[in-house]
Specification:
The structure is a single chain. The protein is mainly α. The protein has a domain of 70 residues. It has 3 helices and no strands. The protein is elongated. The termini are far apart.
Length: 103
């Protein structure tokens, strides 16, 4: 799971921020929190699928796939999934806290 911000993004200025906020968003080109969350979830899913594929290759005794490579992929997928669970739990807790605030 890669959550690093790419270096191709430029800092937003006041006028640029207003233009970007008013511009319509394409369904495939989401920006902001929802786009980052969707990208992170897709990354975790891809890591899990990759680890599952490597597991199947090791079980079928494919000589081009090593056990070490498979174990590293499994651990990466597990860490990504645990991080996703922590983020989800934090988001649910924040939502609960906001809903319980006195107005």
């Amino acid at each position: 799971m890669d959550l690093r911000i790419s270096s191709s993004t430029t800092p937003l200025s006041g006028a640029g921020l207003a233009r970007r906020a008013a511009a319509p968003q394409d369904a495939g080109n989401e920006v902001g929190f929802s786009g980052a969350l969707k990208g992170a979830l897709q990354s975790v899913s891809a890591a899990q699928n990759h680890a599952t594929g490597l597991q199947q290759e090791v079980q079928m005794e494919n000589p081009s796939v090593s056990l070490e490579q498979t174990m590293v992929a499994i651990q990466k997928a597990q860490i990504g999934f645990q991080a996703t669970l922590h983020v989800r739990n934090r988001m649910v807790q924040a939502y609960t806290d906001i809903m319980n605030m006195q107005v």
